[in-house]
Write a structure and sequence with these properties.
mainly alpha, 15 helices, 8 strands, flat
């Protein structure tokens, strides 16, 4: 560093202004004198530079020493701090290890104590085992003595009776079987008669109470609706120019409009009661308003359909509130509302479902079951008849699937699916729903039945007993509620008559579908005929 400073100073002195002086001086003497003066000045400058450099170096060394000592002190302090922390951690770990060792020693002492107790118990058990072995040997010896005495007694009895033990046992068993069979038949008849009397009495009591406490309106619906008009001139406006209005009505509603010679009436024909009601309300608004043209028809039909859908939802909500049923899914509420516009054999479906719900609640209360669940299942048992789509499924199975889809409980779903025996009953609600549905549908006047299906059912009922041996004639009476079976007296005994009646009723129950119940009466008589001549 010093050498660099000196070199810089010489360069400035010699190579700077000195060169110009030397060039301007003419004499050599003056040049030498100037050179000597420059060398002296350069030497002075160099000495000053060396002194400054040395002083700077000393200052730097001093500062470095101070910094080094300061860093050493910081390092020592850091070391002491780390050392203290390490010692503290070591002490903490040592204490934890000591505590762990102490706990292990305590557990070891406890285990040793338990092991000693267990050894003592094992020794006591071994002593008991020795005692028991001795008692078992003694008992076995006594059993062998008893068996020997029993064998001697059996040999003596066989010599006295003249029969072997096996023969005597078989003979006794046969005698007991005969006596038991005779006594069992008598008891079976008594029990069946008593059960039939008691069950019939209790069932009639519950059914009568249920029917007496339920009052329902009965409506008869079919596939047509009649729309009354004030005059026949309205028919022309409904038909429109070249029939464009009536075509627009049929296209918008999906219902057939029959405009014939019937005075002051138009017939609306369709199998969907909701569409038929939509068409009736829309036609009423159009006739009242007086503006009848295709654009207006489409607008009115759309508004009417929307208003009817809102009314359906309101009917469903009001029905659920009236029956005290809560928490129904909105889709199930809508289906309940749609029941108002459906009928089954002429019986309004909503009224039928309300009636079944009330009867189910009453019957469940009489039997000690939950009336709320019974009422819920009774209301929903026919929702399979009002789906938005028409899948190829029985309405009971479809209703069960819809109930499962919308979160109903398993016992309610089973009651819906099993009320026509299409799935197996798994809860006590199922037979209640089935019985109440039959009561509501089979009551005289509640439903219309097609004559052909009625005659077919009666013929099947009369033909079914003829497959049994000994049956000569059958008669279905009381609209198929009772079946009289005439048997040959020389082929069927009195005891067999009871069995035949039970077998025929079981076969009817398994193979036929019928409302209510069918009473089977087997008649056996002996006729002796002679002529006086």
């Amino acid at each position: 560093m010093i050498a660099a400073v000196i070199a810089a100073l010489l360069g400035l002195v010699v190579g700077g202004g000195g060169a110009w002086v030397f060039a301007k001086k003419a004499s050599d003497g003056e040049a030498k004198q100037l050179l000597t003066e420059a060398e002296r000045k350069a030497k002075v400058i160099l000495e000053d530079a060396e002194r400054n450099a040395k002083r700077t170096l000393d200052d730097a060394n001093g500062k470095a020493e101070v910094i080094r000592e300061k860093k050493m002190l910081e390092a020592k302090e850091r070391f002491q701090e780390l050392k203290s922390k390490h010692e503290e951690e070591v002490n903490h770990r040592n204490r934890a290890v000591q505590e762990g060792e102490q706990r292990i020693k305590q557990k070891e002492g406890s285990l040793n104590q338990k092991l000693e107790n267990l050894n003592r118990e094992i020794q006591a058990a071994e002593k008991k085992q020795v005692t028991l072995d001795a008692q078992v040997e003694l008992y076995t010896a006594k059993v062998r003595e008893v068996e020997a005495d029993r064998s001697k007694q059996i040999e003596q009895l066989e010599r006295i009776a003249g029969l072997s033990a096996e023969q005597a046992k078989n003979q006794l068993i046969e005698n007991l079987k005969a006596e038991a069979r005779t006594g069992a038949n008598v008891h079976i008849q008594e029990i069946m008669a008593e059960a039939r009397l008691t069950a019939d009495k209790e069932a009639k009591k519950i059914v009568v109470q249920t029917i007496q406490r339920v009052a329902t309106e009965h409506t008869i619906e079919n596939a047509v609706s009649i729309f009354n008009i004030e005059g026949d001139e309205v028919k022309g406006r409904i038909i429109g120019r070249e029939g464009r209005n009536i075509r627009a009505l049929e296209a918008a509603t999906g219902v057939e409009f029959i405009v014939d010679d019937t005075p002051e009436a138009i017939i609306l024909s369709g199998f969907d009661p909701v569409k038929r009601e939509t068409a009736r309300l829309a036609l009423h608004q159009l006739v009242t308003d007086g503006r009848i043209h295709p654009a207006r028809i489409e607008e009115v039909v759309a508004k009417t359909a929307k208003r009817l859908e809102e009314e359906i939802i309101e009917i469903g909500k009001r029905t659920a509130i009236d029956l005290g049923i809560h928490g129904l899914h909105p889709e199930l509420i809508r289906m309940v509302g749609r029941m108002k516009y459906r009928s089954s054999y002429g019986q309004n479906l909503l009224q039928h479902s309300r009636e079944v719900a009330n009867m189910c609640a009453i019957m469940a209360t009489e039997l000690g079951l939950d009336p709320k669940k019974a009422k819920r299942a009774g209301l929903l048992h026919d929702i399979g008849k009002v789906p938005d789509e028409e899948p190829e499924l029985p309405h009971a199975i479809l209703g069960m699937k819809l109930a499962e889809k919308y979160g109903e409980k398993p016992d309610i779903c089973n009651a819906i699916g099993a009320h026509h025996d299409e799935v197996e009953m798994t809860s006590m609600l199922s037979p209640i729903i089935q019985v109440c549905d039959a009561i509501s549908g089979a009551r005289p006047g509640a439903r219309r039945e097609i004559v052909e299906s009625y005659i077919k059912r009666i013929k099947e009922l009369e033909a079914l007993p003829l497959t049994f041996p000994g049956v000569s004639k059958t008669y279905a009476i009381q609209a198929g509620r009772e079946l009289r079976v005439i048997v040959e007296s020389d082929q069927v005994t009195d005891a067999q008559s009871d069995e035949l009646s039970l077998a025929i009723s079981q076969k009817i129950q398994d193979e036929m579908t019928y409302p209510g119940q069918v009473k089977v009466t087997v008649i056996r008589e002996k006729r002796a005929v002679s002529y006086a001549k």
